[in-house]
Amino acid sequence: MSAILSVAALGELVAGWIGQGKLVAAPVQVGDRLLYQTLATAGQAVFDAKRRPSNSIKEFFFPRHEPIFRYRLEGKEIALSDVVPEEREQIVIAAKPCDAAALPILDHVFNWDYEDGFYTGRRARTTVVTLACAAHDEACFCTSVGGGPEDEAGSDAMLVDVGDGKFEVRAITEKGAALFGATPGPPAEADGGTLKRAPRRFDPARVARYLGANFESPLWKELTLTCVGCGACAYTCPTCHCFDIVDEGNAAGGVRVKNWDSCQFPFFTLHASGHNPRSAQPQRQRQRLFHKFSIYPQKFNAVLCTGCGNCERNCPVGLGVLKVLEAIDGEQRRLDANEPVQA
Amino acid sequence: MTERLRQTARRLLEEGKVQVVIGYGAAGHPALITKAEDAQKLEWNDHCLANLSVYLTRKEVKALGKAAIVAKGCDERALVVLEKESQIDRAALYVIGMACDGLGAPKCASCQVHLPRFADEVIGEVAPPAAAPTGPNGFDRLMAKSAAERWAFWKDEFERCVKCYACRQVCPLCYCERCIADKNRPVVIDTSATPKGNFAWHITRAFHLAARCVGCGECTRACPAGIPLALLNQALAQATEAHFGYRPGMDPQAEPVFGAWSPADREDFIG
Amino acid sequence: MSEANAMSEPRPVSFEPKIIAFVCNWCTYLGADLAGTNRLEYPPNVRIIRLPCTGRIDFNLIVKAFEIGADAVLVSGCHPGDCHYTAGNFHARRRWMLFRSLLETLGIETERIHFTWISAAEGKKFQQVIGEITEQARAMGPYAAYQGMCAGPAPSPAVEAAK
């Protein structure tokens, strides 16, 4: 079931949710960037089907900094206390489909051998409303990893810009329907509407085959030597989820926290012995590609990437994963042409 | 200019004078060219904003052998400081200077170094720079606010910092093998992206670049959250020039500010 | 939070400012010791941290002092020309000249940071300086802006904005 809402009506809905004490997150214009942020007022929200925020919505499920517990040292005794969990309902609205699609992918790792209550608690409390894409740029490649401008993975409801400042609201799950007072409708057609899909740039299965056999390829150095080793790609990526656990405090006590970490930092794999198995940038870049396109799929049957393109757009040197993936794809194609793959 | 750049690069590689040319490729992104036939990939256009000298202190790049580097006047200032700090061997480096009168970046409006002055060869010709504009800029506007307003401004800006360290990694002068931010016995700067951790990091980053930062602006350009980091560096650059008449990277003979001292240093704030 | 607000907000009746003094071992520390041996009373609000030389005082120590709740900081050492290590205080002076401009740009209350040269013979001066700083800090109130910002890890933006 779907209804048509004007931007003004959407704004009123958002203001209502904020008034009810719910946390509402949406794209917000900050300087010349669009960034997902928790709203202070409904007027901040930007409903633009043609632009992609520079960050991702993982902040609202897996925040950049999360206290885990507090501790006090009293003589020889250690007193632990729980962090008060956030209990307010949360709504993320006008998320891009490539951001929402990351959530079912991340659900695997946060639930596989241990349920990460911090993450699952936020997932349960949050309703995700996506805004279908009316445009894509050269960095987008959702269609190469099974996504698309109207992909519904991870969405509870979807807004589609139908022009004249109006949006069609499609309820997808019970949660999404409840938010808009509707009933869930049938899934949209695979090639729905007139939204232009980005052409496919590579085949993840072919890439995985190359990765499976070419750990030591000279391609890694050739393609990724310009990486400067920051965390801009990992931190703006909807699916990257590495974290570091640190204690912050003093002799009297403190708090144990979980912070984002990036496999591109030079000390990510530094051992206490001083040995660093990934001491050079190409090794670290290789690891990123392997994690996303070989290891995670082997373990969870899901590519750890939604093709949003944030890595490339935020990379200070214009790297990102797409260029490397296209090169690998091309290389495997050449190998396939010379040697037919064994069935 | 692009063609001459490619020819120079090709020649240097073919003759074995260098093993890598650090230049700009498609869309102005950094490119490390190790084969003469790849010299065709080098570009020179409005997108060539990156300060490539950051690669000169990377061990993976140093391992490739002798290097040639494409440098604009602004980038060259970083080379001067790197040499002063004994991080590069200038004699072993081939500097391909590019004449540049602006690529449309904010820093270009006040640039005084259109022509690299210490390059091994300079490609292109441009008009000498006009006098720097005197109207108020972003920094002046910031300092016109009250201290309380400035505090609120930076608190707001740092709220968006995620501690990705892109600012540190792109800076040619942040070359410490182990940054103080990575030190954990004891922790000096919280790694958390909290207001406390972010203030501590940005104070440290700016001050460790005091009287060294050459104003290339890469930190601001690289920040995925759009924080105007260069304003902090600009504050220190202005104070450095006002107190010591020193502009990092302009004069290879000038004594670095923190390597020296003078009995005449101003001390009206010391009781 | 502005200075004006800090002064007009109700302060706890017994607000005692915390002063942290980073002093050099050879001059100011001995000067403080002289104040002690001469029974010159100075406010107990100050915690003295002894370092070999002002040249060793990292700017991060000043930042850390505010992080852990100092309301004012003193940095003090030998007079120029008298440094036990010849030039440590000259290097420190240069550092402070630039560091203050960075702090001003950030809107940090630089009136709360004091720099002095106090020699081993200047016990009286040490007493005076500590007295002045303490009174000034008492009048300015706690450095609530910095301490408030550091108080515990900030909740994620999700929680913060809804306040």
Give a verbal description of the structure.
The complex is a heterotrimer of chains A (343), B (271) and C (163). Chain A is α/β, with parallel strands linked by helices. Chain A has one domain (2-338). Helices cover 30% and strands 22% of the residues of chain A. In chain A, α6 (204-213) crosses α11 (322-338). The longest helix of chain A is centred in the last third of the chain and has 20 residues, at 281-300. The termini of chain A are far apart. Chain B has nine helices and five strands, in the order αββαβαββαααααα. The mean pLDDT of chain B is 93. The longest helix of chain B is centred in the last third of the chain and has 15 residues, at 230-244. A five-stranded mixed β-sheet of chain B has the order 2-1-3-4-5. Chain C is an alpha/beta fold. Chain C has a four-stranded parallel β-sheet, with helices on both faces. Chain A binds chain C through residues 18, 21, 23, 25, 37-40, 59-60, 63-67, 86, 88, 90, 248, 250, 255, 257, and chain C through 68, 152-162.
Précis, in short:
Helix content of chain A is 30%, strand content 22%. Chain A has 343 residues and is of the alpha/beta class.
Average pLDDT figure of chain C: 88
CATH architecture of chain C: 3-Layer(aba) Sandwich
In N-to-C order, the SSE pattern of chain A is EHEEEEEHHHEEEHHHHEEHHH
Q: In terms of quaternary structure, what is this?
A: heterotrimer
Low-confidence stretches of chain A: none
- Quick one: CATH class of chain C? Alpha Beta
Q: What is the first-to-last residue Cα distance of chain A?
A: 45 Å
Strand % of chain C is 5-15%
Instruction: Considering residues with a beta carbon less than 8 A from a beta carbon on another chain, report the largest interface and each chain's count.
Output: B-C, 49 and 41 residues
Radius of gyration of chain C: 17 Å
- What is the fold-level CATH name, i.e. the topology of chain C? Rossmann fold
Q: Percent helix among the residues of chain A?
A: 25-40%
Indicate the overall shape of chain A: globular
Spatial sequence of strands, sheet with the most strands of chain A = 1-9-8-7-6-2-3
Number of strands of chain C: 4
Number of helices, counting only DSSP H or I runs of 4 residues or more of chain A: 11
Strand order of the largest sheet of chain C: 2-1-3-4
Counting DSSP H or I runs of 4 or more residues, the number of helices of chain C is 7
Radius of gyration of chain A: 22 Å
Q: What sequence of helices (H) and strands (E) makes up the elements of chain C? A: HEHEHEHEHHH
Q: Label the structural class of chain C.
A: alpha/beta
